Amino acid sequence: MNSNFIDYVKVYCQAGDGGDGAVAWRREKYVDRGGPDGGDGGRGGNIYVIANPQRWTLLHLKYTKFVKAPHGQPGKNKRKTGKSGKDVFLEVPLGTVVKDAESGQILGELLYPQQKLLVAKGGRGGRGNWHFRSPTNQAPDFAEKGEKGEKRTIILELKLLADVGLVGFPNAGKSTLLSRLTRARPKIAPYPFTTLTPNLGIVELSDYRSFVMADIPGIIEGAHLGKGLGLRFLRHIERNAVLLFLIPIDTPDIQKTYQVLLNELQAYEPSLLQKPRMLAITKSDLADEDYKKRLRPFLPSDIPHLFISSITGENLETLKEQLWQMVQKQKQRMPLYK
Ligand SMILES: Nc1nc2c(ncn2[C@@H]2O[C@H](COP(=O)(O)OP(=O)(O)OP(=O)(O)O)[C@@H](O)[C@H]2O)c(=O)[nH]1
Ligand SMILES: [Mg+2]
Predict the structure, then answer these.
(1) Do both 64 and 133 map to the same domain?
(2) I need a labelling partner for 292 at 20 to 30 A (CA). Which of 10, 36, 176, 249 fits?
(3) Residue 338, domain member (yes or no)
């Protein structure tokens, strides 16, 4: 299994503690013990998750089990505040969902470049003794302790933000199509489960138009129960604007195959069926025009279809244009494909 595609990591985060407030006294000539002048402790470092559009997976965090932000420095004399602990930033790709590992609660999703999310807050610095002087106590010999930094284990889960997701059984020709339409070079082979991790590519059209296409490992009956590569990759379909179903022309029962794919998506997440979808009958070079004509009445009626071939290039331009239109429409309706 290609282990470079990491879409799930668990990280223990410990924000910095606040520095303690200082107990100090003004030093003046001829004055034995001046008034209180202990400064405040610095704030502990925060831990943030931040979206970096140059990142595509969570691979760089695979071995990061533990992240710690520095503590704030204690306060100093002359009412000087201690230095704050530096904030720590965990970079993640767009489309990362952040959860609290203990409660399972979603803390946030990172959908825009540079968007950041506070996951562990640094402790506040304690106040120095200077703050505690009062008419009844001119010489407070105590100060506040710094607050502890927050600790929490987070789960980072990547859901690829692609415009078009390819949905099909293993061997349907998904990777071949991606390699024809984009510069991506996924592995292609005449056996099922060639693709073990998702691949992304950019489909370019005229006039600088483009959209992102995701090739996801093949889905089989029972995928939502964990069969085949199962659940693990179904989540990457959640964020796609448009789903392109791929079924080879030599499939004995295209209608039924389509239904199985739909059922799997529905069983995993019913809202997936709300997404606009299109059907590509792949490997159409294997059949002649007459066969296609006879096949038409046996194709599912609730979805537009195109006969395509990644070998001859049949209808690939039309496919690109139609997908582009669908993506645009969906983007206007739902800017973030949720
Ligand atoms: N004749 C013909 N064969 C094709 C076409 N597209 C793909 N194939 C062949 O079908 C086989 C499977 O192609 P892949 O692109 O690896 O299929 P996949 O859907 O990515 O398969 P998995 O990664 O296993 O899910 C390969 O042998 C391809 O050469 C096509 O348009 N015409
Ligand atoms: Mg493949």
Answers:
(1) yes
(2) 176
(3) no
